[in-house]
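Progress note, project year one: complex with phosphoenolpyruvate.
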Amino acid sequence: MLRRKFIAGNWKMNTNRAEAVALASAIAAKVGGSSPVDVAVCPPSLYLEAVGQAIKNSAVGLGAQNCYHEAKGAFTGEISPQMVRDIGCTYVILGHSERRQIFKESNHDINRKVLAALGAGLTPIVCVGETLDQRQTGKTAAIVREQMEGSLAGFSAEQMLKIVIAYEPVWAIGTGVVATPQQAEEVHADLRRLLESRYNSEVASALRIQYGGSVNAENAASLLSQPNIDGALVGGASLKADGFLAIVAAARPNGPEA
Ligand code: PEP
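Model obtained:
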């Protein structure tokens, strides 16, 4: 099965409003109205509306970086999946390692958020990944499988087909240390085996698994050429239009010049 590559930029808590609009406009201008690669930007939630305006005539999608699992109510400071959808998002990143580590989100928390996001019609990008210590002690497969099974517990095959997974080794995020294509491919292939055993071959072959962790214009092509790597979730390198667009170009089915 030919899976469409998907490149998403996670801007984290960066940019001001004017910078966000300028960055989104530059990306939208280059991507244009149709693209052989799915592309999305995930700005800070306060700028979702402005960025949505800047990309509205392009094929660039809009994503939030987080949401809560309730639709509305007394949850000061939170935003609901319905609000995220209402402001124009298609995607929401859930379970990013910064949310797991800094904000102590558990697999159970993430599971509830993914369910709520699906209910609101969003495509969740669900992040999993091991720490350096876990990798060095040979626990990568066990940890990543546990995060997948915990974060995605109880979902049907049909629901799984609406989800994107991002494998993001924590030791590679924001460090400049990228997983080798072989290291990443090994985990992606293992996750696909897990999907096959828990669901079926349709889910295993259709579900997209992005790699994230210090992806840049130089290393993108070798990662994206791996058979089980279906795109990238890009942090630092998504904050400059040229660098992000070079990663998008590297994901084109016929190569960057096509
Ligand atoms: C991320 O935060 O999702 C990420 C992959 O960051 P970076 O590309 O900066 O490592």
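Residues 113 and 258 are 38 Å apart (CA to CA).
Residues 10, 168, 173-174, 212-215, 233-237 surround phosphoenolpyruvate (CB under 6 Å).
No further modelling is planned for this target in the current period.
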